[in-house]
Amino acid sequence: MADALSPLEQEIRRLIGVAGPMPIAEYMRLCLTHPRYGYYVNRDPLGAGGDFITSPEISQMFGELIGLWMAAVWRQMGAPENVRIVELGPGRGTLMHDALRAAKVVEGFRSAIVVHLVEISPALQQIQERRLAELDVPVLWHSRFEEVPAGTSIIVANEFVDALPVHQAIKQDDGWHERVIDIGADGRLDIAAAREALQHFETSLPRALRQAKPGAIYEWRADDFALELGRRMRSEGAALIIDYGHDHASLGDTLQAVAGHAFTDPLRAPGKADLTAHVDFEALAQCAESMGARIHGPIRQRDFFLHLGIEKRAAALKASAPHKAADIEIAFSRLIAEGARGMGELFKAIGIAAPALGPLPGFETPS
Ligand code: SAH
């Protein structure tokens, strides 16, 4: 049987054999970023024949408005001569490409910036290099956020945090147990509950969730990313994080696997599907705030882009390319529509910025 298993599944089984059942977060980390077999390491999940599509790939308006947002924030900072524009998980480089093209209209902005891209995938890094080469701005790559040098920065990330490993715990009669990956009775990978209950877990939960019933599932991510973001933003700079998730901590299993634009079982074919989980914006905000940053939002993606003027932008694009008007309309409504089919409601935007910066564009209703 072992011969039919992928090298990554063999490795995961070996690790379980040596160290025992593996937390879901560790499984997710290996599936996505194992240096040889990880999902993101080898492929372009967004390209033709890819697995999923993201907002910047749906419409240029997404990146353009974020570009104007970055330039507005830069001005609000007093138009410093040197600023780092950082993008976390830039995918195919589309957001940054559209952003910098649009921000050309803001005098002085492009000559003040150095772009830093945080990308773990060598395959995507190559695509980004090609994509941004024509823009004539300096671009540097890092595989980890911590490697980006400190200093005044404007950070953006779309669908990055959902790919960071998530832990799960399940409530049982004797307390909360971490959910782990084990080898089931049928010999296949399976989700189980760790034998020992997590110590003092209930008291660390948000108050509203402490009375959860047996069977309830709670998800959390390691604090390090949010702490790092808050630490970097507390005295200068601003970050814009867009992702799907909930604005208040809640219960439920949101781990999902997507391949070929369809949901699949997260335990089958590890490393061959994208694995993600909803972002808990409340937890992210609390961590970043505890480091001294100020939090803006979270608000729905729909409201953020309406505040930034996406309706006007769509009208201008339609006027300049009438033969594409129907496509522009479809993209526009996908980005801002409410309900399960649109991205306007499930996706949220949160700003994390230096308190001295004041209100951030897009987070307040424009007057
Ligand atoms: N922001 C892009 C791509 C989203 S997919 C878009 O909106 O289209 C997630 C991106 O994050 C990919 O570029 C992936 O390679 C990168 N990524 C995922 N986990 C990462 C990690 N731990 N460190 C750095 N980059 C990561």
Low-confidence stretches: none
Helix share bin: 25-40%
Number of beta-strand segments? 16
**Class by SSE composition:** alpha/beta
Question: Under the CATH scheme, which class of the largest domain?
Answer: Alpha Beta
Which fold name is given in CATH as the topology of the largest domain?
A: Rossmann fold
Main beta sheet: 8 strands, mixed
Number of helices: 14
Instruction: Kindly report how far apart the N and C termini lie.
Output: 65 Å
The shape is globular
Describe this structure in words.
35% of the residues lie in helices and 23% in strands. By secondary structure, the chain is α/β, with parallel strands linked by helices. The strands form three sheets. Strands 2, 3, 4, 5, 10, 14, 15 and 16 form an eight-stranded mixed beta sheet that branches. It starts with 6 loop residues before the first helix and ends in a 14-residue tail after the last strand. The mean pLDDT is 95. The site of S-adenosyl-L-homocysteine has 20 residues, from α2 and α4.
